[in-house]
Amino acid sequence: MEWNLVCRNYWKGALVQSFYMLGVFAGAIILGGLADKIGRKTVFCWSALLQLLFGVLVAFIPEYWIFSAFTFLYGMFGSAGAFIPAFVLTMEIVGPSKRTKCSVAFHCCFSFGMMCVAVWGAIISDKTILQVVYGLHSLILIPHLWIMDESPRWLYGQGRVKDAVQIVQKALKFNKSDIVLDTAEYVSKAKAERFFQKKTTVAKTKAGTLELFKTPHIRNMSIIMCICWFANSLVYYGLTLSSGKMEGNPYIIIAVFSLVDIPSYLMVFYFLDIWGRRLFISIAMLIGGTACVIAAFLPEGATVTTVIIVIGKLFIAASFAIAYNYSCELFPTVVRNTALGLGSMFARLSGALTPLITLLESFDAKIPAITFGVFALVSGFLCMFLPETMNKPLPESIEDGENFGKGDTLFSTCFRKKAKKPYTGDEDEEATQSMVVNSAAVSS
Question: Where is the Major facilitator superfamily (MFS) profile domain (predicted)?
Fold first, then answer.
């Protein structure tokens, strides 16, 4: 299909990219909250099926505006509907010492997928066949309908304690553990908690997006994380789109830019559990933002400019990966998927704006890069006011979330001389059993 997207129609190319991001934006709003109501696995499996369907169908749409509409739906059920619930589910079933590893593994797969985009693009010249190949990659998600279990944390929050215990017991058996969980005991504990914490239980059943803004501490965290997601996406996709304007083979450039993410994730893997989430994400965004501003004043196409852009991409990719991890740990179980969906919503909003912001270079080539840099710098500073979550149990109820890390900022930590108890790793064994009760019994 040829739509002659040049000269007067140049803007239509950027608009299609914006439609995709707006689809992810809508998916984050609708499907993020839905996953907190009907389950992570249910939303993931249906989204995977629809992602496969729209990913293939979009290749055969001959008309521009219908193509844009299908692209919108493709984004809605792909990045939002499939990725976010799967990420949340994974983070909810592992202990504190494994969260970073799982988060890094997710993002490495994303980079590998981007490299596959470049490889297939270099091999297949027919654009229709190319899109069909891209769409068929979703086939690998379909078997999860049978091999993936629902989140025990979510099941417990819904009062389905027996189902939660069965899944944890299945995991223990798979890991060849001799631990046997007493289902009756956990059911009894759950009933006692519901009796003595009726207000909390009501909050759990009615939890939604508005819960993120009702109480002051959770509201502050929500606003800062929304800004963080917005800035990360703006800079990440802005630098990625800028790579298309570099001299050389576009497929090699895309592959190299995707490959740059791998050392970013390795950096996260090795240092996130040493430096902590708050310090690392703040430093990464400040360096990434500074790189963008510096690149704006360097000659286009120069080697030093390319190096600075790559450095910026390196640190922004790291902060983007941390944002997923951090969001899951900051917010309580009853609104965790909603919180991650809200953050992703702001990320896709900025992602939709990114192609349009790059068009501002027609007025001044410096405007896009400076815009990206300023957002990253402001966000990096604001993240310093978030509480640290490293090696801490996940909050469960809204009340837990409101009390979680209150008064804990980077500045209060620096000025407060307090002995820190070392992390031993023993909490993972405890967290395995306590996954089916109100909060993970994790020793800090």
Answer: 1-391
